[in-house]
Automatic annotation (TrEMBL):
Domain of life: Eukaryota
The protein's name: MCRS1 protein
Entry-linked PANTHER family: MICROSPHERULE PROTEIN 1
GO biological process: positive regulation of transcription by RNA polymerase II
Length: 168
């Protein structure tokens, strides 16, 4: 009686290629599950505003908690991975205009924006008109969706934490 010979453990080249492809698509699918289109849009806008992934990690509230490494990996994937980039762009295009406006209102303030806000004195009682004027004088500095109310709220926060020019 002869014993059956076990199949060779060395996979054929075609099988290895298919396994590698399925692992890549599994990674893409895994990323798609955690990263929502709103998160991608928020990430892109925040990085464009601050040019700093660490600031984005510390200052942006995404739909779920991402560590700095995950944010870096997603940013690089959006930039350099054609599959992820294409899928993310398609998903972001599907967002409702109101959702886009809500996301844009959460974008971090840039250093240049905060620099202009620090010029408004802490002892003055600025009105919405003051901040509206600031928006009109510096349209190239402020993020396009900023409102006078958003500037006023951020200025109040800066005042509370003694970040204005005339505060010690």
């Amino acid at each position: 009686v002869s014993t059956p010979i076990a199949p060779s453990p060395v996979p054929t080249p075609g099988l290895a290629k298919r396994m590698k492809k399925s692992k890549q698509s599994l990674q893409v699918t895994k990323d798609l599950g955690r990263w929502k289109p709103a998160d991608d849009l928020l990430l892109i806008n925040a990085v464009l505003q601050t040019n700093d992934l660490t600031s984005v990690h510390l200052g942006v509230k995404f739909s779920c908690r991402f560590n700095l490494r995950e944010i870096q990996e997603r940013w690089y994937a959006l930039l350099y991975d054609p599959i992820i980039s294409k899928l993310a762009c398609q998903a972001m295009r599907q967002l409702h205009p109101e959702a886009i406006a809500a996301i844009q209102s959460k974008v971090l303030f840039s250093k240049a924006e905060e620099q202009l806000l620090t010029k408004v004195g802490s002892t003055s009682q600025p009105t919405l008109d003051t901040f509206q004027e600031l928006l009109h004088k510096h349209p190239d500095v402020f993020y396009p969706s900023r409102t006078a109310k958003a500037l006023q709220l951020h200025w109040q926060l800066m005042k509370q934490y003694y970040l204005l020019d005339d505060q010690t």
